[in-house]
Amino acid sequence: MRTHTPARVLVVDDDPTVSEVVACYLDRAGFTVDLAADGPAALERAAAVRPDLVVLDLMLPGMDGLEVCRRLRDDGPVPVIMLTARGDEEDRILGLEVGADDYVTKPFSPRELVLRVASVLRRDRARALAPPAAPPLRAVGLTLDPAGRRATRGGGELALTVREFDLLAYLMRHPGRACGREELMREVWGWEFGDLSTVTVHVRRLRAKVEEDPARPRLIRTVWGVGYRFGADAAPAADGAGHA
Question: Cross-referenced PANTHER family, in alphabetical order (predicted)?
Fold first, then answer.
């Protein structure tokens, strides 16, 4: 991400009123803003000038936001905040499945959206500037390699989104400890506010990929009224330091 110029945000929405209001608030906050009214225009603009972050409406004419997100990610990693007029869990899951970093339901506060944009960009910058990653972690057939950002289970590579990987890494680094949803949102997403159901949905999707039986999770357990715990009987060990 650029460090000496304002972060560039691409806003993709077919509603000109929404686009103009969001662009105005982002501009006031010091961001460089590009606008696109549909999927093809967004992909064309992103190919011409790569954005640092994309604010992307889910319901676009012709090519929906999910397909736009997939195609953007095919050209390289870029943070994405999804916008939608629909707030049901199915849509949230679809957005998270393609790797959206945040999910905002219309109507929304433009000021809150600006804060979320800044938060996602800070997290993205911190990841890029992070010191060399720790050795791989292992737990009951599960291996996490922070340096290569690869996760495997039983020898097979897991297709994890950026946030799913970060969430799993945080939980594995704190085995046996109950991690609250607010803590996870702060440490994994870098948010001091937001919809805690985002954490819940990510955990559900992560369980589907790492648990033998997601309905009876052994690795990522629910601590009722608090959050989640990486199973104490599945505590990870650093590579070369023993086996769990």
Answer: DNA-BINDING DUAL TRANSCRIPTIONAL REGULATOR OMPR, REGULATOR OF RPOS
